[in-house]
Amino acid sequence: MTDQERAGMVPGDMGPWSVGGQAFRSRLIVGTGKYATWDGMRDAIQASGTELVTVAVRRVNIDQPDEPSLLEYVPKGVTLLPNTAGAYTAEEAVLTARLARAAGLGSLVKLEVIGDAELLWPDPVATYEATRQLVDEGFTVMVYTTPDPVLARRLAEAGAAAVMPLGSPIGSGQGVLDVSAVALIKERVDVPVVVDAGIGSPADAALAIEAGADAVLINTAIAQAQHPVQMARAMRLAVDAAILGRAAGRMARRDRAVASSPNTGVVTVASPS
Amino acid sequence: MELKVNGSWRETPELATLGSLLTHLGVTHQAVGVLQNGQVVAREAFDREPLHNRDELEIVRFVGGG
User: Fold this and answer.
1) What value of ipTM does the predicted structure carry?
2) I need a labelling partner for A210 at 20 to 30 A (CA). Which of A46, A251, B27, B41 fits?
């Protein structure tokens, strides 16, 4: 037994995961939206230990063209993952991805096509169509999707580099409403599974990982916490704990109690004489 | 010349290329993506892509998002 193993580290089982050939050690992807300040965002990204952050594509404000760029506040060495948020059709999503690549961010993209403005629920048909198109154009596509095991399999077959089922509606903080769906999806695809959206607390993040997710994507739960930097660190610890716990091998669930203390040698109380 | 930039028509001096428009608007220092009449223009092509009167342009950048 190595010193590391004796200390409870399980090196082989805590290795990196990869998307489109790029390896990441951190199992936490962090969004960059809704932070109160740029400095706060940078500090939270650092505290989270993430190596991958999402960004959105929006029009330049022509009346204020020199306003500070988000990119200046993303720590060096962190990979940028542009999203297609705001797209309601496959065409809009594909165009947004092309713009992000043309702007110099490479071929990695988080595909997101919404079908319901109130629920921000993905449009499965448009998402599938856009996945095929973007894969065809050479993108590495991480696909935000409904927690549907069949759709996830179809997306993976269409060439998605990762499938990202929602835990609950974007920004809702309701957690992972269908934990079993995460496990079902993981059993059916060969690409990484990332639980994206709805995670509200460290416990939610840990549940997603314990259910089999390779990583989680968190934005609002960190950005809108009262103390985003502490929450970023809490999420990091929760994800690491869940990965380590998963590798350690969970005990079997049982219907009935099984005593932890010996049944023999129990002290008996003498009857009063 | 008359150009539609990010949804609004505006009058600009005669500009030869997309790159000169970005300089004119003061946005060249940013990592931007440009759509010219619906077509994506590669960054490397900014300084040779000709501008035409009544071109419609979308100029985008990266902002915070999830």
Assistant:
1) 0.93
2) A46
- Minimum Cα–Cα distance from A112: chain B residue: B66
- DSSP per position, B32-65: -EEEETTEEE-GGGTTTSB--TT-EEEEEEEEE-
User: In Å, how far is B13's CA from the nearest CA of chain A?
Assistant: 16
pTM over the 0.80 mark: yes
For B2-54, the pLDDT digits (tens) are: 999 999 999 999 999 999 999 999 987 568 999 999 999 988 899 999 999 99
A194, A239, A151: which is closest to B66 by C-alpha?
A194
Return the residue of B nearest to A53 by Cα. Answer: B66
The b/e string for A251-269 (b: 16+ C-beta within 10 A; e otherwise) is eeeeeeeeeeeeeeeeeee
CATH number of A17-247: 3.20.20.70
B19 interaction partners in chain A (CB closer than 8 Å): none
User: Active-site residue A34, yes or no?
Assistant: no
Q: Does A219 touch chain B (CB under 8 A)?
A: yes
Instruction: Evaluate whether A97 touches A139 at the Cβ level (below 8 Å).
Output: yes
